[in-house]
């Protein structure tokens, strides 16, 4: 199934006969959605046969997650999914991107499926379809079963084969109703934040392990793609989602340009080249030679990794600015955390600098041009590959006022700027077929716990009350009209 063929409800197309705002329009049939992830919203951590994941273990490790928060309850989506789908319908979403929880579907990380776990996703998918919303499933959004981490996690080659087995189980049960599947979400974070910097689960701090995990994640993507193709209808589409970086050198000085080359290799080409060209970049192999000899790459791996996919998902939040290293400069903040450990396995000689502009509650600079740069780069580097913006959004200090309303003008401005960047990229020839806002709900924000709010729907975690923010109403109007309102 092509991206254009994804079923989209009438609300996702410009309304006929309605007054249209004066702003620029998106192409007809553009897919409008929102995204979430299982561990961040589901809760019910010990219900329905679900086993612990690496994030259950990590969040219970003192000092790893702010305030000792866990995903045990999160947004309680497991019990409140019908209300959440009704909210999606009210907003006019054409599609909903969510992740399946591996430890809910296959608690041991291998062997038979857990019927209760699959039953939950059956109910969710059926509810979405009943409301005319296309389900878009991600198989892995970082919640590896702890049983597999106990055996080495993503540093063990066998984990990639277990992933393919899990993919087949999920597709066999749900593939008749889910037309679009994503193998992995942001393998860079899984490998480099989880195994290199240690600020994400499982919390390891070994650059060689990070590169090994990276390769096995890509191998899992390839094997999982094959498993999905074997189980799904021929019309189904398979994709991969990457958090590619818009890497900018501070200046045209040779040292700054080389720093940008090095980080571009570790952020972008280390994924794009094996997936689309069946090889690793020679300069990345050379840059990382002091970390690993890459002996974990075996004959046939790159052929598996480069199996054709139907589209590429892009997650974008903020650009990356680099320069030649300055020994006198303070250590950078990594993923919002002060740390002396770098997630980059070979960033010697590189200094990371903040981009200019206003900042979100994550302390991330707001720069929509970075999204435009990424999309037009992919237009040139991967001609003919359909693109989806699968995550884009911002955290701000939201609160409910005395009337119960949640006003978030900063988020509206952020979304307006980034959607305009998408529209400009489409106008300039980028094959962007849809946009998934991050996130539908306030949720468990990984190592930040519940201290950061990305949702367009406010969640009072004590009562689990949902309140659409101003940004939700704004986004609903963009979906209804297919246009950005004039500023």
TrEMBL record:
PROSITE patterns given in the database record: GLYCOSYL_HYDROL_F1_1 (PS00572), GLYCOSYL_HYDROL_F1_2 (PS00653)
Enzyme Commission (EC) number: 3.2.1.21
UniProt enzyme class: hydrolase
The keyword 4Fe-4S belongs to this UniProt entry's keyword annotation: no
Domain of life: Bacteria
Keyword set includes Aminoacyl-tRNA synthetase: no
GO terms, molecular function: beta-glucosidase activity
Segments passing through the bilayer: none
GO biological process: cellulose catabolic process
Reactions performed catalytically: Hydrolysis of terminal, non-reducing beta-D-glucosyl residues with release of beta-D-glucose
Compositionally biased residues, Low complexity: 7-21
Location of the active site: 186, 391
SUPFAM superfamilies in the cross-refs: (Trans)glycosidases
GO CC annotations on file: cytosol
Positions contributing to substrate binding: 40, 141, 185, 317, 438, 445-446
Location of region: Disordered: 1-21
UniProtKB keywords: Carbohydrate metabolism, Cellulose degradation, Glycosidase, Hydrolase, Polysaccharide degradation
NCBIfam families registered for this protein in UniProt: BGL
Family affiliation: Belongs to the glycosyl hydrolase 1 family.
UniProt-recorded name of the protein: Beta-glucosidase
Annotated organism of origin: Kitasatospora indigofera
């Amino acid at each position: 199934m092509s991206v254009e063929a994804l079923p989209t409800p009438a609300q996702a197309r410009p309304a006929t006969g309605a007054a249209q705002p004066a702003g620029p329009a998106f192409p007809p049939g553009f897919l409008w959605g929102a995204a979430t992830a299982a561990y961040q919203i589901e809760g019910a951590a010990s219900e329905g046969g679900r086993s612990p994941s690496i994030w259950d273990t990590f969040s219970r490790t003192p000092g790893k997650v702010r305030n000792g928060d866990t995903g045990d309850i999160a947004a309680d989506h497991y019990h409140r999914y019908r209300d959440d789908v009704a909210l999606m319908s009210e907003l006019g979403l054409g599609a909903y991107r969510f992740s399946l929880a591996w430890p809910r579907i296959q608690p041991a990380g291998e062997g038979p499926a857990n019927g209760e776990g699959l039953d939950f996703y059956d109910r969710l998918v059926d509810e979405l379809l009943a409301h005319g919303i296309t389900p878009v499933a991600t198989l892995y959004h970082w919640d590896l079963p702890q049983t597999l981490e106990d055996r080495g996690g993503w540093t063990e080659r066998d984990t990639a084969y277990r992933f393919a087995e899990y993919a087949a189980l999920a597709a066999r049960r749900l593939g008749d109703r889910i037309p679009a599947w994503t193998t992995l979400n942001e393998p860079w974070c899984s490998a480099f934040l989880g195994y290199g910097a240690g600020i994400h689960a499982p919390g390891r701090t070994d650059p060689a392990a990070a590169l090994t995990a990276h390769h096995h994640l890509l191998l899992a993507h390839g094997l999982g793609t094959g498993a999905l193709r074997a189980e799904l209808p021929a019309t189904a589409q398979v994709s991969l989602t990457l958090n590619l970086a818009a890497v900018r050198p501070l200046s045209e000085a040779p040292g700054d340009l080389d720093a940008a080359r090095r980080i571009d290799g570790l952020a972008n080409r280390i994924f794009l080249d094996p997936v689309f060209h069946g090889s690793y970049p020679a300069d990345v192999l050379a840059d990382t030679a002091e970390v690993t000899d890459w002996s974990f790459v075996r004959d046939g791996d790159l052929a598996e990794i480069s199996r054709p996919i139907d589209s590429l998902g892009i997650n974008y939040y903020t650009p990356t600015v680099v320069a030649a290293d300055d020994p006198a400069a303070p250590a950078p903040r990594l993923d919002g955390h002060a740390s002396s450990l770098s997630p980059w396995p070979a960033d010697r000689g590189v200094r990371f600098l903040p981009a200019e502009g206003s900042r979100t509650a994550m302390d991330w600079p707001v720069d929509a041009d970075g999204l435009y740069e990424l999309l037009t780069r992919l237009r040139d580097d991967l001609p003919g590959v359909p693109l989806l913006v699968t995550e884009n959004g911002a955290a701000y200090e939201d609160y409910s006022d005395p009337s119960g309303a949640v006003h978030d003008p900063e988020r509206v401005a952020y979304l307006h700027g980034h959607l305009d960047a998408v529209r400009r990229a489409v106008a300039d020839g980028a094959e962007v077929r849809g946009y998934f806002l991050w996130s539908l709900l306030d949720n468990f924000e990984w190592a930040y716990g519940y201290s950061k709010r990305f949702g367009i729907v406010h969640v009072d975690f004590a009562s689990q009350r949902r309140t659409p923010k101003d940004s939700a109403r704004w986004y609903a109007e963009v979906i209804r009209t297919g246009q950005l309102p004039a500023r």
